[in-house]
Design brief:
The protein has six helices and eight strands. It has helices at 15-24, 48-53, 70-84, 100-105, 124-130, 166-195, and strands spanning 2-10, 27-28, 32-41, 60-61, 88-91, 108-112, 135-142, 152-159.
């Protein structure tokens, strides 16, 4: 069975990191076994660190505040990912702008809490809740130099009802994220295997 390695990058709570580890790490699918080669976090106190440890993976901390510029931070990220042997990198709540150096060297996908191209940026959930648009959702897309602008791979949507509170709305978004991101990774890696 072919082993496909992934890297997971996160910055905060790590609920998506946890779902990826639960659903993918050391799991065998139709055409491959997936292994999480490394988890990388840019914030030394992030909650997600313990979630990674619970799966026996000590996160690699690359603290962006210790670098003088974005390029040197991204170079360290790229080297760590390449050294891990990961062929796909998953951004699961990784809150950093990435430079062209990163996007040229690493194939990565990102999870975003809106139906892109609507509501790019860090306030997507708030903006989507406040908007008159009745359909909301989430996207998984390739990472490009444009913030939240790479090709869309998968989306899930739901209808925003009048009675929905902001908390319920946010909960719905996260529930969809927790299934769509692992599913998308599986689909991408299995398809790659078939292509060969
Ligand atoms: C998610 O809502 C994701 O869409 C966004 O950041 C959040 C990360 O949440 N990019 P968590 O850290 O995985 O719980």
């Amino acid at each position: 069975m072919v082993i496909k390695k992934i890297a997971i990058l996160f910055s905060g709570t790590g609920s998506n990191l946890e779902k990826l580890l639960q659903n993918l790490h050391h799991q065998t699918f139709e055409h491959c076994t997936i292994e999480v080669a490394c988890t990388i976090c840019n914030r030394p106190l992030a909650e997600g660190i313990e979630k990674s440890r619970a799966f026996g993976i000590e996160p690699i901390i690359i603290d962006h505040t210790t670098f003088t510029d974005r390029d040197s931070f991204d170079k360290a990220l790229v080297k760590t990912i390449q050294d891990s042997g990961a062929e796909l990198t998953v951004l699961a709540g990784f809150m950093r702008f990435l430079t062209p150096y990163f996007t040229h060297h690493i194939q990565a996908i990102n999870l975003h809490p809106s139906l892109l191209p609507l509501f790019k940026g860090s306030d997507a959930i708030k903006e989507s809740f406040a908007s008159p648009i009745k359909i909301a959702g989430i996207s998984v897309h390739y990472v490009s130099e444009e913030l939240d602008g790479g090709a869309i791979i998968a989306q899930r949507s739901f209808t925003k009802t009048e009675s929905m509170s902001y908390e319920e709305f946010e909960e719905k978004i996260h529930a969809l994220e927790h299934t769509l991101l692992p599913e998308t990774v599986i689909n991408l890696l299995n398809r790659r295997n078939n292509d060969r």
